[in-house]
Structures are given as C-alpha cells and as structure tokens.
Fold this sequence. Notes:
Subcellular location: Membrane
GO molecular function, one term: oxidoreductase activity
Pathway: Porphyrin-containing compound metabolism
Order of helices and strands: HHHHEHHHHE
Main location: membrane
Low-confidence stretches: none
Oligomer: single chain
InterPro entries: COX15/CtaA_fam (IPR003780), COX15/CtaA_HemeA_synthase (IPR050450)
Structural class: mainly alpha
Largest sheet: 2 strands, antiparallel
Amino acid sequence: MSTHVPRVHRHILLANLVAQVGIILTGGLVRLTGSGLGCPTWPECVPGSYVPVREQEEGIHKVIEFGNRTLTGALAIVAVLAVWAVWKWTPVRRLKVAAVTVLVGVAVQALLGGVTVLTELHPVTVAAHFLVSAGLVAAAAYLWFCRDEPDGTPTPLVPELVRAVALVTCGVAAVVLTLGTVVTGSGPHSGDADAPARFGFDPRTISWLHADAVMLFVGLVVAVWLATRLSSAPVRVAATWRTVLLVTLAQGLVGYVQYLTDLPEALVLAHMLGASLLVVALVAGLVALREIPQE
Length: 295
C-alpha cells in the first residue's frame, strides 16, 4: 500500500529542511560579524532582560545575535509541525524517528548555543554547534527525500561493495566537516569582535590537513559515481551522485579561493552554505542507492 502524502505535508518537510540550512547561515553571519557575544548572557540577552536593551554597548552585534536566537524559536515551530505532519500522514517508523530527531536536536542546539555563550565562544562548543546543525540538516534531508516512501524493507539498487564505499564516503565527509570547523576555529573569524577564542593550531597546517581529507573525499565520490554509472542501477542513481560530485567540486573551489584570498567573509559564508548543500546531496545519494517498491 503506497503512502499518500498531501501537498501541505511536503511543504512542511521542505520548510523544515530549508530552516535547518538557514540557521547555519545565520549562525555563520553571527560569527563573521563578530556578534557571538552580542547578547553576553543566556538565556537572557543581558542580565534582567531577555531582549536587547538600548544601553547595551554591543551596538549592532546585539541585534544580530538576538535575531539568531529568535530564529531558533521559529526553527522549533517548524520542527514541531514536521513531527505532527509525519505522525498524521506517514506510517513509516523511520521517518517518525527522523522527525523526532530534528525536534530534539533543535532543543539540544538551543542549550548548546547557551553553553557557547557562557563559555565565551570556546572553539570546541562553536564547532559542536555547527556539527550538530549538519546532523540535523541530514535528518531533515532524509525526511524530505523519503517523504513518498511506503513502509517496507529497502531493496539495494547497486552491489554491496558500492553501498559500502558510499557509506565510507559519508564517513570521510564527516571528517572533512570536522576538520573544517578546526580550520575556522584556528583562523580570524572567532565570532567575537573583541575577545577571539582560538584552538591555537597553525592555520596553514590545519588548512592543508583539511585539504588532504577533501582530496580523499573527492576521490571516493568519483569512485561511487563511476560505479553507479557502470552498474545496472537506474540512470537516476548515477545522476544523483553526479550532483554530489558537482557540489563537492564547487565547494572545493570556494574553499581554495577563500584560502588564497585570506578568508573574506562572503566566501566563508558561501563555504558554509556549500557544506550544508553537500550534506543534503550526500543524503540524496545514499537514498538513491535503494528503493522500497510501492505495494
């Protein structure tokens, strides 16, 4: 029996995915403008007030940071709607788990954001903040790409070896993202205009380590793409992995340009968007490697 998915359900799940990507960009904006401590306390913005006050010395930074906090509330509303929609229209248990994961993750992110402020933007908490967001993007993307699937056991469309390499590729992608946060945490954009908190690593060394991991990742993506082309899988499978490759190459290009141009804010923000889109593309790639027949 196929799963009937109304249009409103799809709109909610798409909004859920867009919101998770969007919060990464607004968080990047906070960091790149040095507004991480625009609201220097948490959960209040300043002692005695949950919203910025005129007397604050943080200026525009308080507006930017408070705006990002406010968007977290909107994110939670969309996540609640996603859980409601999945429970109402989708009998598939794994989609319900994914929806709840996003909702719980939003709450975790709110708390982690508070810890980040209270630790004065310690680079470990800042990195964790981004990586949790990347995981929530993956869960929201899974919800979106699997929205029409019925309940049942997935049938592989490619040989087991290809699926294994694809999973390794995703693992390496996680390493690449983690190293990317270390690169950022070793560079000039600490998140606060006056009190930078850094890892202490040599930016050049850690950047090249990140680049080495990227090269390995690119090689694995090419291998999966070629394998899907040579297999008997439907054409859409190779097309999906071609998209993964194109997003990877575009992200790599932005990364090298930003490194060679001393990390201009616009390119750093574009690189964060690229990282989010890469997570989405990888989830699409994994989903494309199997199907669940409609009954």
